[in-house]
Design a protein that fits this description.
Largest sheet: 6 strands, mixed
Helix content: under 10%
Distance between the termini: 22 Å
Shape: globular
Number of domains: 2
Radius of gyration: 23 Å
CATH superfamily of the largest domain: Prolyl oligopeptidase, N-terminal domain
CATH topology of the largest domain: Methylamine Dehydrogenase, Chain H
Number of strands: 34
Length: 474
C-alpha cells in the first residue's frame, strides 16, 4: 500500500568539527545511517549493517561513530564502531540476549558509556568502554533501570537518569574515580528533567523541567545547588527540547503547542527569547546547531512525512535539505487535519485532530486512541489516518485526559481511580461528533493499539450503544 511505503528522515545529528548532517532512514527498506553530502547535494548511505540501526552517536573529534543495531526488531541493541565515514566497522558488544543503551562519548573521544542488563534481566548497570581496545568495565551497579545521558567536560563523571514514576525521573552524577553517585540537587522533588545541556566549565547547565510549574520550562542550573533560574516558560504549553550553541551564546528550543512544534531561540547575552518565523508546521525533533548562525532539525507533519531542514537565524528562513519524505504517488491526497476541542462530562476541554476530505453528506467516523497511556497524538504523518480519510472516513484522534503535552495536571487527571474518566471522554466525544452535519452518528467506530487497545475494549463495554465497530490492536 502506497501510504505504508512512505519513507522519512529522522534522528538528525551534526558531526562535530564539521557541518555534516547525519540521520536515520529506511530508504533501502531497513533503517541505516545516512549523511548529507554538501558537494553533491544528496544523501549517501553511511552504514550497511544487516539489521536496523536504532541509535547512533558521533565522537567529539568527529572521526568515529557508534551505531546500535538490534535483531529483527527485538530492541536489544549491539554496538558497532564506524570509522572512515562508515567504511570500517568494528563490533563493540557481543551479548545479543541483553539490552544496551548508548550514553555518549567521553570528551577525549576514546571511550563511550552505556547501560545494560547483563548482570540481571531487570537491573541496568553502567559501563565505560575503550573503543580502540574494546575493553569495558562496570562502573556502577543499579537495581533497576538507569541510563547515562552525558559526560562531564573533564571526563571524570557521568550524569545518568533514573525513572521514579510513570512520568518523573531524577538525575544523578557518578564520580568515575570514587564510583559514588549522588542525586543532583535540582532533583529535590519529583518532576521531569529532560534535554540536559552542560556548559564547557562543567559546573552549570540548562534543563527542561516542570519541577516548579505545571508545564515544562527551560531553566539554567548549577551542579552544586538546587536553584533553578527560569529562562523560558509558556504557561499553557510544554517546552520539549533544548540545544546549546557551540559558542554558548544561544539556546534553541521547541514548544509543543497542542501537538505541533514551534521553534524558539533564547539569547543568553540579551536574556530574551523569540519564536522563529517561516518554519513549516509539524513536529520538530533532533535540534542541532550546524553553525552558530544555522540550526538543523528533523521535521514531519501530516503532509510532510519526514525530512531534514535547516533554519537561518540571521535571515529567519527555513530550507528543506532532503526529499526522502516526498510521497509522489499520494502527495496530493494527503490531508492536513484541523485541531478541534470538545467539552467533556465535567467541563474539561479535550483536544482532538480531525482528518476529513471536503465532501457533502454524512460520513462514517473512526476514533483512534493513542497508546501510552502517557503519550500524545501529534501533527505528524499517520498512514492509516490518511488512508481512511481518502476512503471517505472522518478520522478523529483525541488526546483525552491523561495525555502528555498539556501539563502535569492534565496528564494526572486519569490516575488510579480516575482511569475511567478518560473513557468517559470518548463517550462525550461521540456526543459532540454526532451533532455535526458531516457525521453519521450510526457509523462511529473506535480503534487503538496497546493502551489504546484497552481504551477500545473499555469504551465498547461501558458505552456499547455508541459504537458501530471496534478494533483492538494488542
Amino acid at each position: 500500500m502506497d501510504y505504508l511505503q512512505v519513507k522519512s528522515a529522522y534522528q538528525l545529528k551534526v558531526v562535530p568539527q564539521t557541518d555534516e548532517l547525519t540521520f536515520l532512514t529506511k530508504l533501502t527498506g531497513i533503517a541505516q545511517l545516512w549523511r548529507w553530502d554538501e558537494g553533491s547535494q544528496s544523501a549517501r548511505q553511511m552504514s550497511f549493517l544487516p539489521d536496523r540501526v536504532v541509535d547512533f552517536g558521533h565522537s567529539p573529534c568527529g572521526t568515529k561513530t557508534v551505531v546500535g543495531m538490534d535483531n529483527k526488531g527485538d530492541e536489544r541493541q549491539q554496538f558497532f564502531l564506524l570509522t572512515d565515514k562508515g567504511a570500517a566497522v568494528k563490533p563493540l558488544t557481543d551479548a545479543p540476549q541483553c539490552f544496551h543503551y548508548f550514553g555518549g562519548w567521553s570528551p577525549c573521544s576514546k571511550k563511550i558509556a552505556w547501560s545494560s542488563n547483563r548482570r540481571h534481566p531487570r537491573c541496568f548497570d553502567l559501563y565505560v568502554q575503550d573503543v580502540d581496545s574494546g575493553v569495558y568495565e562496570e562502573v556502577y551497579r543499579f537495581d533497576g533501570r538507569c541510563d547515562p545521558i552525558a559526560w562531564l567536560p573533564n571526563g571524570n563523571g557521568l550524569i545518568f537518569t533514573v525513572q521514579e514514576t510513570n512520568i518523573d525521573n531524577a538525575l544523578y552524577l557518578l564520580d568515575l574515580k570514587s564510583r559514588e553517585a549522588k542525586k543532583l540537587p535540582i532533583c529535590s522533588k519529583q518532576a521531569r528533567f529532560q534535554s540536559l545541556q552542560l556548559t564547557k566549565d562543567g559546573e552549570h547547565g540548562y534543563i527542561v523541567t516542570d519541577r516548579d510549574d505545571n508545564t515544562m520550562a527551560l531553566c539554567r542550573f548549577s551542579l552544586a545547588d538546587a536553584e533553578l533560574v527560569k529562562l523560558v516558560h509558556i504557561a499553557k504549553w510544554d517546552i520539549e527540547e533544548a540545544k546549546l550553541s557551540p559558542d554558548e551564546d544561544l539556546l534553541a528550543f521547541t514548544v509543543n503547542q497542542g501537538g505541533r512544534s514551534v521553534l524558539g531561540v533564547y539569547s543568553l547575552a540579551e536574556e530574551r527569547w523569540e519564536l522563529a518565523e517561516n518554519v513549516p508546521g509539524g513536529v520538530i525533533a533532533g535540534l542541532a546547531f550546524r553553525a552558530d548562525e544555522q540550526l538543523a532539525f528533523a521535521l514531519k507533519s501530516p503532509t510532510l512525512p519526514g525530512d531534514i531542514w535547516t533554519y537561518s537565524l540571521r535571515e529567519k528562513t527555513s530550507a528543506r535539505v532532503t526529499s526522502i519524505g516526498v510521497a509522489r504517488t499520494i502527495q496530493d491526497k494527503l490531508v492536513e487535519p484541523k485541531l478541534c476541542t470538545f467539552r467533556s462530562f465535567d467541563g474539561l476541554e479535550v483536544p482532538y485532530f480531525l482528518y476529513s476530505k471536503e465532501k457533502t453528506g454524512k460520513s462514517p467516523v473512526v476514533v483512534y486512541v493513542h497508546g501510552g497511556p502517557e503519550s500524545q497524538i501529534r501533527a505528524e504523518y499517520h498512514p492509516v489516518f490518511q488512508y481512511l480519510a481518502n476512503q471517505g472516513f472522518t478520522v478523529v484522534a483525541p488526546n483525552v485526559r491523561g495525555s502528555m503535552g498539556y501539563g502535569r495536571e492534565y496528564v494526572q487527571l486519569d490516575d488510579r481511580r480516575k482511569r475511567m474518566d478518560s473513557v468517559a471522554d470518548l463517550a462525550w466525544l461521540v456526543k459532540d461528533l454526532s451533532q455535526k452535519d458531516t457525521v453519521d452518528p450510526q457509523a462511529i467506530g473506535i480503534m487503538g493499539r496497546s493502551y489504546g487497545g484497552f481504551m477500545v475494549l473499555a469504551a465498547l463495554t461501558h458505552y456499547p450503544d455508541l459504537w458501530a465497530a471496534g478494533v483492538d490492536i494488542v
